[in-house]
Amino acid sequence: MLKKGRLKLPDSLGSLVSGFDDKEMKNGGPGTVLEPGEELEIMEPNGTEFSHKENEYGFDDLVNDTDLDKEGAFRTRKRPEKDWKGQVSVMEVIAADEKRSDIEYELSQKEINLEKVRRISSMGLPDGGGLRATAWKLQKLLLGYLSPSHDLWEKELTENRQKYGKLKEELLLSPSEYTRVKEDAMISAELSGERDDAGPLKRQGISHGDHPLSIVKASAWHHYFKHTEIAEQIDRDLLRTHPDLKFFSGESSFSKKNREAMRSILLLFAKLNPAIRYVQGMNEVLAPIFYVFSTDTDVKNAVNAEADSFFCFVRLLSDSVDHFCQQLDNSPVGILSTLSRLAELLKENDEELWKHLEFTTKVKPQFYAFRWITLLLTQEFNFQSILRIWDSLLSNPFGIQDMLLRICCAMLLCMKSRLLSGDFAANLRLLQHYPDINIEHLLRVAQDLSADTSSYSLSLTMEPVLLHGTLHVTIYEACRVFGSGCSKFCCQILENIDKTVGFGKGFCKLYAGIYLEETRVGRTRLLEHPHSDPQWFESFHIYCAHIASNVIFSVKEDNPIEAIVIGKAYLPVSELLDGKEVDKWLEILHKTHRPLHKGSKIHVRVQFFDATKRHYWSKGIGSPKFPGVPYTFFSQRSGCRVTLYQDAHVPDKFVPEIPLAGGNHHEQHRCWEDIFDAIINAKHLIYITGWSVYTKITLVRDPARQKPGGDMILGELLKKKANEGVRVLMLVWDDRTSVKLLKKDGLMATHDEDTGSYFHNTKVHCVLCPRNPDDGKSIIQDIEISTIFTHHQKTLVVDSELPGGEQPKRRIVSFIGGIDLCDGRYDTPFHPIFRTLDTVHHNDFRQPNFAGASIHKGGPREPWHDVHCRLEGPIAWDVLVNFEQRWRKQGKEDLLLQPRELDGILTPPSPVMLPEDHETWNVQLFRSIDGGAAFGFPEAPEDAARVGLVSGNDNVIDRSIQDAYINAIRRAKKFIYIENQYFLGSSFSWKSNDVKVEEVGALHLIPKELSLKIVSKIKSGERFSVYVVIPMWPEGIPESGSVQAILNWQKRTMEMMYSDIAEALRDKGLEANPKDYLTFFCLGKQEREMLGEYVPSERPARNSDYSRAQKSRRFMIYVHAKLMIVDDEYIITGSANINQRSMDGGRDTEIAMGAYQPYHLATKQPARGQIHGFRMSLWYEHLGQLDDIFCHPESLECVRKVNHIAEKYWHLYSSDILDNDLPGHLLTYPMEVASNGDLAELQGTEFFPDTKARVFGSKSDLLPSILTT
């Protein structure tokens, strides 16, 4: 008969699985002992009791008092024995072969596609061949024990296996065994002659504290005996591990060896994690891992299965270790919370069954699902089914726990009819003795379930809104955040391993990123060993133009290959729109939008400033006292002089008179002539930076303007000045693709090796400097930066005489811009392509757009349009500072002239223009550069922020060029004129279904800022115009993959902008062409043949782009300028392109200046200073004419006139009929803009003239976007 009384349950969940609770039976043996193949039954945590009365549910028929132990409700049953193999159909064999082929292919790739591996794994991995072992090691939830990079596997495995061997030596040997090992090592060293000390061997003494009988708690023997008890419990449990499998069970040497390996793993885990130690059931979780790795067909992997299993076991357990911790039972991450989520999942998918179990029969998840969850279903099915289930568990992109709960819920649903007809006793017995089931069917049911909608799901229903303005963000600290995406135990145990064996720099190196949806806009520095409460206290000034629902703070763990996301915190944008400061702790969530850990939070302060509500929005410079762009490294300088240059040379009387304010007229200046004069007149220093410097060019070529020494090549000119005692220092980009020994120029043809060799053993100090990454970059980033990115600055700093020339002291003068001192750059506003091939361009022929082009095969040469400037006054010294910072970082010797040497030579930085002089300039220097290229950047984020630098990724960046563009666009009142070599960016706003825009990475804001400026003007009923001049295509073979990819990014950028404008026009009810507000142009040259022209000795290949262009006598003018003019009052020019490479700050190094004339602002009337004159001169060059309407570029009349001229010129250029030279150079970019903003090719213009290159390019699946953006 049954005992009439209530069933007494254990006091805690921990006691159900703990294997070392120190409770002994009266006979001296251990507590309740389970027979092999038996398992736990009827469990309820924390001392709660069944709420029903005795016999209410026929409980007498279920439990016999002889089966109950007074310490807990343990009842045992044999694990079901099922036939693993059975009969399989031909179709199943074929499907298995296809699956094997698929996974073998994916695992053989140099870079493993984890998504594909997960997808294949989720459908079940084939047995044999080691495929399951490799795939399991790869799965993200094993936290990348193998990285996706196949080339790193050998190194990673070797390091981890060495760590494990040292761990066993340090922690598993008894003190006497450890001493003996050390002695043997000493004897071996002695015999091999490696010891230096003479005399007999000295036996290592054992101190009194380390004696086996010592009672000192710090004694090694004390700790050894303490863990012996745990080892005994592990041994008992291992004997009960899958007794039906000879791999684990029996007395064979094979099974004993396997149990010994598992014993070492579990004992090491316990020693390294004293807070949890070993818990009964961990042996069951380890078993599948060890079995799969031990049966790997790769002998080396199988031999090392113990080490690999240990590390993967640690990582696997990180996702569920909280379930083994009694103290966390009632926490959000404890077992009760997980059981509650299972109930919620069942309710979501079948409320009828949920109510029946929860209320009718009162079969709570605690009674059956505790074992399912804690032991990952290893007690419910046969071993082969367990392996299949684990394929799905480990491959689930949302984590093991997500898939585990789905399977548990599916187990209930698959038994629905039996459960609905059963009472408490029947249902409890059914769920604790789960019957045979088709595993594939079970997993399909699990996969098809509705998502977990537990109380921790995040509501993301807020409509995204435009966040256009500035975010001031401070990330203070986080609490209870642990690395490896796991819990504190995993982080600590990995650190314990590292400390024990002395490898590496530790684990859990954390940082926080700031995201607007998928776009990262800021990140903190990396914190090493932050434990669970990292503190950053970093502030960020972030320009934004993004559509977002949330500001997301992502906490990540650094990784040499790819960072691991630990969790994310969400701040709804709606809380920021009123402009008030938000200072709060945000809960950090798992990717399933449930809290990551109990109390895991991040403390942030955020304030949003709407750009359109700022006092400077559309106000222009506004006042002569405008202080410049804020938050930059260099302050604005006053009292300066700026000289603007179009092209390398301008002939006399090129442009008609352009009237300026005060009765003045625009003056033409000649760039390379002025550079020649600056070098020839230097007395003390000549400092040059260049993407390319070519020694064989001459700077003075105009027969009407010859100068003494003007025929000297640049190399000889610089050597001459160095021999005169002038300090000549050069920093030339080292193109890593150029090979000196093979006489190869490199992909960019920069002549860097030739230039370095030319100045070798001379007094000119030329350093070829690669684009080195900053400290703290990942392995991948190191490779990217050093091989893909460049030093792109083009600067010249010289000493010059003071005005008047009578004083002994001298001053600093600097040149910056887009023109390198190299071949192919000398040109005039006429841009000849055939007529100068026997004169100024005979020895300077450049045509990189055709394969095999040369002067011997004739034109067209590639004409070159560019912009440069000379800076005088305090701003010139800032350019000097830039050079000195770069030289100190990458110069080979400290050859810079020191301040004490300059004191008696140079006047200190001082104005060169009086405040009342109406031609004075205010100028500010901007850069894209990081600590890898510039010396002296502050390391501390707070110090970096104070000097206008951005910190992140242990990298300090000057990103002020992009900031300057954004600031100028937001201030713009009426129009913007841009010339640039590239125009692509704001990829976060691209509308595209065939590319993942978040992976493109062209994140700078300039295109989006331009379109938003136009949109704001349309909404307010004001006119605004943007003119953009770009090359027909980027320099290079136009059909090549890289050129086509860039054209494709450019098309997406344009389409995004036109879509914004079209939408604004629709909202306003206006029927207008988007090109009335934004229009793109390119430049072209077409020359008719003249008598006496150069006749080449060879001809291009028939039917080539080269031959067709030669026949049609036309070619694009390559736009290399980097210029933006705003309202004719503000100008930015320098070396930076409008792409991510130039604007990022951590990619290409760049330099630029922003300037205005305080007496020539567009306040009450249009600005008519030198900036206006320079724009009008450029327009004359491009259009071949001047018109009064060009003085009002914002007007619809002006836009339409310029568009009309450009369309006419394109028609002439693209025509096969050539009667005369093209009257101007400005061509409409060959595309049509639909009313909705979509772009289409001009009719009959799928390809650029004379080529087979598509105008809109094509997406490249081979080239990484980081190369082409």
From TrEMBL:
GO terms for cellular component: plasma membrane. This is Phospholipase D alpha 1. Its cofactor is Ca(2+). It catalyses: a 1,2-diacyl-sn-glycero-3-phosphocholine + H2O = a 1,2-diacyl-sn-glycero-3-phosphate + choline + H(+). Its EC number is 3.1.4.4. InterPro entries: C2_dom, C2_domain_sf, PLipase_D/transphosphatidylase, PLipase_D_C, PLipase_D_fam, Rab-GAP-TBC_dom, Rab-GAP_TBC_sf. Signal peptide: none annotated. It holds the Pfam family PLDc. The lineage of its organism: Eukaryota, Viridiplantae, Streptophyta, Embryophyta, Tracheophyta. GO terms for biological process: phospholipid catabolic process. Residues 211-397 form the Rab-GAP TBC domain. Residues 452-586 form the C2 domain. Belongs to the phospholipase D family. C2-PLD subfamily. Residues 787-825, 1115-1142 form the PLD phosphodiesterase domain. It is an enzyme of class 3 (hydrolase). It comes from Salix dunnii. One of its GO terms (molecular function) is phospholipase D activity. Keywords: Calcium, Hydrolase, Lipid degradation, Lipid metabolism, Metal-binding, Repeat.
